Amino acid sequence: MEPAINVLIAQFKTFAGKDGSSNTLSKEEFQSLVASQLTTLVKNASDPGVIDQLMSSLDQNNDGELTFLEFWQLIGTVASKHGGLSQ
Amino acid sequence: MEPAINVLIAQFKTFAGKDGSSNTLSKEEFQSLVASQLTTLVKNASDPGVIDQLMSSLDQNNDGELTFLEFWQLIGTVASKHGGLSQ
């Protein structure tokens, strides 16, 4: 599993490093990541309304930036549905 | 990212399917997964005390089985530390 985990960390960092804080995703970075990397898992990944809604549902401290763990939560939720593992 | 996510889902299912409920990890399945798959990310992965402690910290409803999302939380926490992304 570790090679796959390392891929996810590296790709998060690539997108998070594009502007501002290099350890968090701004809305623009999040949109860019979802639209290019999560096209199967997130329906309508290129719809700004979908991105807005996802971003606000994940950004628990509401600062406009997603931490790795906030982002990780999204992947887990969509992956569990995709994999038929949600409760 | 989706290929890496699919690897993690598939490997979770492989371990979860070994006994009992095929969608959750028993303690034995969790131990087997951690000791074989997370040797870098989890220190002392073969120590039963470490496994006991991790399992009880993750098993939020305390039923002795880890769901995918409970397990996902663990990976996110250790990955964020490993990747220098923890707050």
Automatic annotation (TrEMBL), chains A, B:
One of its GO terms (molecular function) is transition metal ion binding. SMART domains: S_100. It comes from the Eukaryota. Residues 46-81 form the EF-hand domain. The keyword Calcium applies. InterPro entries: EF-hand-dom_pair, EF_Hand_1_Ca_BS, EF_hand_dom, S-100_dom, S100_Ca-bd_sub. The keyword Calcium applies. Pfam families: EF-hand_5 (PF13202), S_100 (PF01023). GO terms for cellular component: extracellular space; perinuclear region of cytoplasm. Keywords: Calcium, Metal-binding. This is Protein S100-A11. It comes from Clupea harengus (Atlantic herring).
